[in-house]
Design goal:
- The structure is a single chain.
- By secondary structure, this protein is an alpha+beta fold.
- It is about 30% helix and about 20% strand.
- It has 4 helices and 7 strands; from the N terminus they run ββββααβαβαβ.
- A 3-stranded antiparallel beta sheet has the order 2-3-4.
- β6 (about 90-95), α4 and β7 form a beta-alpha-beta unit.
- It binds iron/sulfur cluster (SF4).
- Iron/sulfur cluster (SF4) binds near residues 103, 104 and 107.
- Iron/sulfur cluster binds near residues 100, 102, 103, 104 and 107.
């Protein structure tokens, strides 16, 4: 077994939490679970000796711990490509502007964001594109931004 490359541990005064960015799982866990995952991450064989079968099963079913031969990155790319090429699934992101006044340090737009706005023509095109699809169950997600 190995630790998912997409797992994150957040600990504070209130407890410890596992988050898996691939499976989108979030679980509050006891310190021994965090310690066990650290042991597994460093290759220790007896990493799971203090964990109950139920916790082990959850770690596996939620994707925090995966088989050695499972390539999550390849699977993620495969799923993404399958979704991208699907004629039955739409993921739509609408950005009327990227002139955001927040200052998130990780922002992909950097500090000097373009002060551009979506034109009326583009907005009209988005609406014309969206209306025929809006009630289809295959629409995976719509994200508004800006
Ligand atoms: S565009 Fe998004 S990430 Fe960037 S500063 Fe605004 S809210 Fe933050």
């Amino acid at each position: 077994m190995k630790v998912s490359r997409y797992h994150h541990v957040v600990s504070d005064n209130h407890g410890s939490y596992l988050f898996n960015a691939y499976r989108r799982g979030l679980h509050e866990v006891d310190p021994e679970v965090v310690a066990a995952l650290e042991m597994l991450g460093t290759g220790q064989q007896d990493w799971d000796k203090d964990l109950s079968p139920a916790i082990l099963a959850t770690l596996q079913s939620e994707g925090y711990v995966i088989p050695d031969d499972f390539d999550e990155h390849a699977r993620l790319l495969q799923e993404r490509e399958s979704l991208r090429l699907s004629r039955h699934a739409i993921s739509l992101t609408i950005c009327p502007t990227i002139d955001c006044n927040f200052g998130c340090p990780y922002c992909f737009e950097g500090e000097d964001k373009p002060q551009e706005r979506m034109t009326d023509e583009t907005m009209a095109w988005v609406v014309r594109f969206w209306v025929p699809h809006r009630s289809r169950p295959a629409i995976k997600e719509v994200t508004g931004s800006g």
